[in-house]
Amino acid sequence: MKSETITSEQFFSSTENNTAAVTPNNSIFNFQQKSTTKNSIIKASPLGLAILIGTFIAMILGALSMYLLQPDFDQFHTNRINSGWGFYFLILTVGLFFFQAAVFLYNVYLYLRYKPIESVSDDLLPTVTVIVPAYNESKQVWDTLMSLAESDFPAHKMELLAVDDGSKDDTWYWMQEAKNKLGDRLTIFKQPENKGKRHALYRGFKLGTGEVFVTVDSDSIVKKDTLRNLVSPFVVDKNCGAVAGNVQVLNNSKAIIPKMLNVSFVMSFEFMRSVESRLGSVLCTPGAAAAYSKTAVFGCLEDWINQTFMGEPSDIGEDRAMTNMILKQGHHVLFQRNAVVLTNVPEEYRGLYKMFIRWGRSNVRENIMMAQYVFKNFREGSKFGARLLFLNQSFRLIMTYPFMLFMFFLIINYPLLFLSSTLLGILILSSFPVLFYGKRYNWSESFWAYSYSIFYTFGLFWIAPYAIATANKRGWLTRGLS
């Protein structure tokens, strides 16, 4: 996400000059507090309103078609049961349905029991090294560094490092401007050439002196209390090896795709990672904001920087890989809902699918790595949660191609049945994210969950099978997009 940036002028209340940006009455947090709250209502554009209306019309027509085509559905199910392959496929799908339903109910139970760890007092907070890797971020890196500088964290306990990974734009200039502003509070480095985010982080890890490393993407903004909330679990849980921050969308008022992703992110982080945190096994600490125990990092640092897949160096999925290696050491990996970070996401289809391909490939790679240790005695205490999460992800990967082939079979032979059942399914299944987001934040924005499901089902369904087939390929993909 190196080009989908939002400039500081879009959220600083006054930017007459760069030095005014961090004064108390001119804080970026005035913007943050308005970005994703229960009281915020982002006005829908005419296009957005048309998409929402079209979404509801499509789902209603799907439900109506299901009713009108009921005899055809009955005949289809009868034919499928009477065929050899259809009967076994039906048994498989029913079995997977009940498995997923049981997992979902268990997830709801775990979510209801989840509570973020409260911030500890200043004297108990560990020393931290905050690492900000940047590549072609221009002024956005200034905004990120200023938000970190405004954190409610003891200055004498925070070391701030920024690493320019061989940028070709004016990123280094804005790092220097931030250095001029913050003085000794910030140390900046410039890689002689672009070697990738993993190498930029590696340099920060090697140079950092804190007890805890915090990594923050240079297209992200942290809230004032994010850092202290992010690192407090290390004080409370002595076996905590890593903590995931709560990622929300920064540019969700700029385009349709960020609006949809904003609802999706809340579901992914505030629900799913809360569940994983209760099991002590968050599977991915996001690059936007994550914290790592120094001991845990150095327990796998050389393996991490030299990681390969099918003989090629791994230059993607550095966050998922680090998380996986820390889990393998037997540490807990937790999620802090109260450690909020806002990050820019792609605003156009091309940037979005490239980002998802990168994530998909990383998911395949790390699932293979996890299979090598998850059924061993990799940590003390219960391992059920980690194993359940692994099995759930594995089933989804394994069934990707069978379900894709079945989908094409339906499209070719029963197009109306496929379309109507899919739209009705979206109406039913997407109602949970709608209710979840609406309850926590804003009802008017929650309906984007329906639109996102339709968009993903018909526009991004190919991502998973393509990512599996090309899991060995390298490349960040989204760098250089305009």
From TrEMBL:
Coarse class of the protein's main subcellular location: membrane
**What parts of the sequence cross the membrane?**
47-67, 87-112, 403-429, 449-469
What GO molecular function annotations does the UniProt record carry, in alphabetical order?
A: hyaluronan synthase activity
Q: Does the keyword Phosphoprotein apply?
A: no
Q: Which GO terms describe its cellular component?
A: plasma membrane
Which Gene Ontology terms describe the biological processes this protein takes part in? extracellular matrix assembly; hyaluronan biosynthetic process
> Which Pfam families does the record associate with it?
Glyco_tranf_2_3
List the InterPro entries. Answer: Nucleotide-diphossugar_trans
Q: Which CDD domains match?
A: CESA_like
Cellular localization per UniProt: Cell membrane
Q: Where is the signal peptide?
A: none
User: Which keywords label this protein?
Assistant: Cell membrane, Glycosyltransferase, Membrane, Transferase, Transmembrane, Transmembrane helix
Name of protein: Glycosyl transferase family 2
Source organism phylogeny: Bacteria, Pseudomonadati, Bacteroidota, Flavobacteriia, Flavobacteriales
